[in-house]
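#struct-help
A.M.: can someone run this one for me? Single chain, 400 residues.
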Amino acid sequence: MRKLKSLRLLCGIGLLLVLASNIWTISRWSESRGVYDDVCYLRQAHLFQKFGAGGLDTNIARDEDHYLVDRLKAIGFPEWNDVKRIPCHTWIEKADKYVMQYPPGTGFALALFPADFQVIPLYALASITIFGFALLGLFRAREPASLALAALFGFAALYLMINPTKASYSMAPTMMVCAAAGYLTPRLFDGGGRQRLVLTALVGLLIGLSVNFRLPNLFLSAGYFLFLAGSFLKARNKETFLQGTAFGVAFLIGIVPTLMANAINAGSPFSTTYGGVDVVAPELNSGILWRYFVDVQFTLLAIAAAWTAWLWRSDHGSAKRVALAVAGNLIVNLIFFMSHPVFTPYYIIPIDMLSLWTLLFATLDLRGERATDNLTFRQPAKARLRYKRAMKSADSAGGR
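D.P.: on it. Structure tokens below:
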């Protein structure tokens, strides 16, 4: 036990050093790196800081102070004065205006920090959050193999906060939500009662909130909905009905900001502000498939799939349920992104990390229970051995 504590301390120090390296790297980032998406997310943040909740309205006509124009000029965008060419804005015929295509969550997260110093603190906060969940993994490890697994995963998760997370500002808050939901998810499938219901609602809320950062995060809920619906159809009892309802209602509450933004900008809560290739019909593309196949995202996905299969082979009921939910999530997200006509180095990172965080904590819980059971099983044998030795000593003393 003392050795395990020493190893845990060493691993924690290692994670802290990686965190310090991350923050040092992040501190040298620039908010003007010439990426169109960056400009649009920062414009959303500017609207929130200027208009409060009114910042949900992203009508390009609201650029009276020339914030967007000045940002585009700063990165050398040649057609800054042509509203039809402004990046990441779409024409909504129903509303008769050009609006930003992204949901409002990333802009709101950036707006929490001072203007011109928003990206660095957001990513620093995200890295610190990931560090915190990595430490939770270390403290939940009950034997050396689990500790090694938690440490290795923690190092990888912190590394990913730099690359590819930096590719899109929407990824920083998404990664925090994935870690939190991954920590809570295994507890939805263990035990019951009011606590399980509350945890289900909390995970539903977290997944719903993630949609406000990236609209494709909507598919992170797929595995949960499939599992909960299947559980109800199989059991048809009050508990499974309430659990599914709690997740669904909480998820809906979480996406309210995006629904409000859609209503304001697109004319209906369920109308999209996206355009172009983002709204074409899904179609398998060999070029897209190959780019994913040779990318680190696919490696993480393969690890998650293999880990899920291993967990499914466990004889523990809750572990099997976790594996089933994760498998459903992986399959639905894989189908969506592999049929999407655009590739980026971060598109499937959210489902990768949500799955891996969930599998990590489910595995740590499973191995922790087994370690406890083994200790309980061995304890009487040790006690009997001490008793026999004591009796032998007593007999020897009596013979003398």
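A.M.: thanks! The two ends are 40 Å apart (CA to CA).
D.P.: also worth noting: DSSP finds 15 helices and two strands in the chain.
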